[in-house]
Amino acid sequence: MKKSSKDIFSDLKLFYPYLRKGLVLQKLEFINKFPEFNKCYSDVLLNSDKEEIAIKVAKTLVKGIEEGFLTEIDLDELLFLLIEDTLFNSYLYKLQSDNIICNNEEDFNGLLKNWGVPIDNKILSNVYNEAERDFVICGYRRYDFDCIRLLLLDKRPVKMYRQDDDDLYAAYPTIIDIDFRRSLLHIRIKDVDHIESNSKEVNTFKGRIENTLDFLSGFNPKIHYKEIDNVRKSLFLIEENLLKGQREKAQKKLVDFEQEIDSFVGRINEEFGPIPEEGISSKAHISTSVLSIISKSLGSNEQGDIAGIKFRNKHGEGKENYAEVSIIEKDFKCISTDELYWINLSVLLNQKEIEFLKIGKQFNAGMVIFNLTASLSTINVKLMQRLSHPDSELERQPTDQKYDEVVEFVNMFLK
């Protein structure tokens, strides 16, 4: 049954965090729809000047449907694109999909039916579907037979924190990518900072991820997955991929001081004896100190793409016996420009494990600033938004295409 304009507006308001005017215009241009948006928006302003921009945008989209510039299917495509280009906090798992058959249309349609995916593939048509569990499947996209993307909503809108006294509720979406090509399961969620709730399943990342995995456990055929093994070692491999070449430029200059370093190490060992730390020699410590000075002579084109790192120097067998090294370059320079990286390099190369990386890397889709973290026994990938950076805002703004390229890069190093 066709929805009334009033019902469409009421449902659309639940997605107000995603109705940013600039992004809406960008996506409408992408799908080549509703060029009359600005004219309709101006008409809405005549009666809605004091309302929030998101509400004005929602009224404009409804007006577009009323006047035949936009269909409900167009609105659904727009909404899906807006959500895709906002959910960039992702937890990755290894997908084991031998039991899932999805090689043709018949297989695909049977899979959707078994998983309880609604036949009416429009988000607003499914917002208030009945649900026995904590999520409602509201739509999907298929990318050939390589990936199925499911859009889940919390079965109830969440209350959002506001400085004024008005209660405001919003839909909270979660994207599940069943990524057959890369053998990955992605759980993509939004920040939880502004949610007002006492439930850890609603207002914490840990609770949300565990609750989502629990929801997926009810699928038949079952989605088999496992946590990424040795994430910290994988992060070290990424660091080495991005910075080892930069280090080698400095190490070539270190060769000229080899004789002096050996002489000094001999005097140190003679006076104090070899250092007791397992795996790191006196020469390694002294060499990295010299490298910290040499690094200052490297040009900006000889630096790397890592703006932040966190790693541990473990002591003994206990999990909690460690010192933590954290280096964050606030102005987005590479950590290879800071002596802290070089002074602690011997520890990093001895441990070969990393807790966190902040990377600013150029991809085909543009510059991406993203964090990689060992979290919840797997890897967390987060594309950063609204950061001051020398690049233009348009180039550094996260997109679904950028997310895809980041995951492609990271997946090369996952065990």
Structure report:
- The structure is a single chain.
- This protein is α+β, with helices and mostly antiparallel strands.
- 40% of the residues lie in helices and 21% in strands.
- It is built from 16 helices and 13 strands.
- Helix 3 packs across helix 4 (53-66), helix 10 packs across helix 12 and helix 11 packs across helix 12 (282-294).
- The longest helix has 24 residues, at 231-254.
- It is elongated, with a radius of gyration of 26 Å.
- The mean pLDDT is 88.
Quick overview of this protein structure:
By secondary structure, this protein is of the alpha+beta class. 32% of the residues are buried.
Write the layout of secondary structure elements.
Layout: H1 5-12, H2 21-30, H3 37-48, H4 53-66, H5 72-84, E1 89-96, H6 105-115, H7 123-126, E2 135-143, E3 147-154, E4 158-160, E5 168-170, E6 173-179, E7 184-189, H8 200-203, H9 205-216, E8 224-227, H10 231-254, H11 258-272, H12 282-294, E9 306-314, E10 322-328, H13 339-343, H14 345-351, E11 356-363, E12 366-375, E13 378-383, H15 393-396, H16 400-411
Antiparallel strand pairs: 1-7, 1-8, 1-13, 2-3, 3-6, 4-5, 6-7, 9-10, 9-11, 11-12, 12-13
Helix pairs in contact: 1-4, 3-4, 10-12, 11-12
User: What gyration radius follows from the Cα positions, in whole Å?
Assistant: 26 Å
Biggest beta sheet summary: 11 strands, antiparallel
Assembly state (oligomeric):
single chain
* Overall 3D form: elongated
**Count of DSSP strands:** 13
Portion of residues within helices: 40-55%
Mean pLDDT: 88
